[in-house]
Structures are given as structure tokens and as C-alpha cells.
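ok so dumb question maybe but i'm new to this and my supervisor (M.) told me to 'just get the structure for DUF4371 domain-containing protein' and walked off. so i did the thing. is this what she meant?? sequence i used:
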Amino acid sequence: MEKEAVYCFFCFLFKPELGGRQGGGDAFVVTGWKAWNKGKDALLSHIGKANSIHMQNELKARALLNQRQSISSCFRRQAEKSRKDYRMRLNASLDCIRYLLRQGMAFRAHDESANSKNKGNFIELLKFLADHNADVKSVALENAPKNLQLISSDFQKEMVHAAAHETTNAIIRELVDELFAILVDESRDVSGKEQMALVIHFVRKDGSTVERFLGIVHVLNTTATTLKVAMESKLAEHSLSLSRIRGQGYDGASNMRGEFNGLKSLILKTNSSAYYVHCFAHQLQLTLVAVANSHIDVAHLFTLTDKIQNTVGASCKRKDMLRERQAAEIAKALNNGEKETGKRQNQEMGLSRAAATRWGSHYGTVNNVIELFTPILDVLEMIEEEAMDFNQKGEVKILLDGLPSFDCVFVLHLIQDVLGLTNVLSQALQKKRSRYC
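this is what came out, is it supposed to look like this??
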């Protein structure tokens, strides 16, 4: 206004490095246009046609003023898309992890390379999910950045640890400040390491009782002192104190329930209200095992059944022979009207070894031997005929003479009747809602 001159804002911003007076030269940029006598024709001449310098400068200026085309805006849009893709990729991986954890399935395979035909349950399940969901497929696996695929072994471990942490926290929140009982057991894992499993038993706000697995702790040995220290450490991780314990339950091992140095006694010294309850079903099992081992005829019976299991179950060929003889025996009984057909009738059976740690296993062993009595004798006779050395023939001969003897058959049916009664009690004690276990 002071100079009474006209300037072009677009050309001022993007004046080309060109000489000449095209579009008015420097008049609309530096000195200002003052040729008012030429009128609007001079202004229109500066604007020019569609490809003129002014029009090009105008396009550049409008692009500059358009925030949607700015570099920062492009970065924001790209970042937002990356966040959405990452969130979808993460949710897909977490869904697969939840499924595998819920089913108790393994995650990894020994070979997860690009050429592997089986990359483990986690990656294969993620591939299955991607094949059935186009949105997931567009952002996961090969369509994801190589450094952000969320399938590495470290990522899987971190997510599993996070899931375990959140699950444990949910258990502690459910417990709140209530009193609880502890259930402890010790065993070895597949690598031979000693470990202790800790379970808490408590009453919820609605009055129902629940058992929650709190965790596994690796221990150097299974002495009562070591187990107590490990248990205290595990409880302390979740701000739980021994003073809140009102019950404790273990198996019958001496290091767990010993009167003097057992874990039971050590905890009672710290908290006299932590009453010890020995599982009634376990007590019954220990009683049955003790009776079976103390009576010579019963002990001989189970020794004989173990040898039969070792002989008949020594190879797949012998097991197949037993199945064939069993099928033939069932078909014969059906033809003679001695058996009935129906759902869950005449199922294939096998021989199992009686074990002190498997409740009801003695009863199952006796039932199977009685049910497969004739097929077992037939298979033993075939084994005796095919045996190449006299030692094996002699061992099978002892079984063939012992099993069908009057004493063995009598004790076999007697024990079946006795264990049949105790098995009903054992099953009742093992029920989920049992008040005794």
C-alpha cells in the first residue's frame, strides 16, 4: 500500500532461477509492479497459460499450504498405519499363544527355518490363521517387516512368561486377603531336575472352594528343609505369608509328612494353625499296597502279572497277537450269546502294570487279566513255541503253569471282589466335590 505496487505471493515464494522478463520478470517479486496505465492486461499476462511460471508457482504454493501433503503429515499417516498393522499382528500372535497355552501344547519345533516343513505349533497355527483371515495375512509372517514378525523364540518365551505372570496375578487378586491351604508335591522333570509344585486351596467370596496352581520351583534336593525354603520363597514372590496358611496336604513320603523333620512339622513350628490333612484316597491306596505286599499269595499274584506284562508286552508283534486273540475270543462269545453288543461294549483292552502311585491300578490290572485270561494263555503258548533259547522257554513255561493254577485263579477272583469294593470308595474320595479329599 505504501509503495502503491503489486507483488505476486506465489512467484515470491517460488521464483525460478531463470533470466528474462517472462511473466513480468522481477517486477512482481522484487521491485513491485506499478504500470497501472496498462491495466488488467498486464496482470493477465503475468498469470499466463496453464503451464506458465506463475501457474507452476501457484501449484507449488498450494501444495505447500496443503497440510495433508506435508512431510510430517505423511509420516503421521505412515506411523498410524504401522501402528494398526502392528496391533493386528500382535493380536494374531497373542490369539495363537492363548490357544496353545489353553490346550497345553508345545510351541516350538527343532527346525523353524524358512525351508522347514513343520515350524512348530505356534508358527503353523499363525499360518493357519493368516490363511483364513485376509486382514491378518496382509500384515503377518512374510508380509511383515523382517525385524517385526513377532514369531521369534525370544518373543514366544516373553509372551508365555507374561501370560503366566498375568494368570498368577489374577489368582492373587481372587485370593485377596483370605486364608488358604497349601498342596505340595515333588517330582522330576524329563531332564532329571528335581522340582516342587505348589497349589493353593481357598474359599472364594461366593463360598465355593477352588484350587489354583501357583507355580513350579526347581530345587536342589527334596529334603524337607529345602522344600520349605523354596515354598516360602515362592509365596513371598506374591506377598503371601506362612501365617495365612490354615491347612497343608502332601503325599505319604517321609520327607513330606515326617513327625520330626518333615515339611509338615517344619511348617507347624512356624504356624501352629496350619493343620495337616493326609488325602483319604491316598491313605486308602497306601493301605491297599501295604496289604498286597504283606500277603504272600497276593504278592505272588502281582509278581506274576508283572512278568506276564513284561513278556506279552515286550514287542509290538506280541501285542498284536494279543489283540487278535482277544478279537477272536469276543467274536466267539458273541456267537454263543455269552456277550452283548452295544455302546462301549467289548472294547479293546491291554495289559497294564500295577503301580503304587497310580490309584486304582491294581484293580484295573486284575480286571484286565481276568478279561484276557484265555488270550493271554494262547499268546504265551505261541511265544513258547517260537522261543529260540531254553531260558526264554523256561520263563514262559513258569507263567503257563502258574497262571491257570487253582491257587492263582482263586486269589485272582478273590482280589477282584475285594478291590471292587475299595475301588468304589476310592472313586468317591477322588471326586471333585468330595469332602474328604
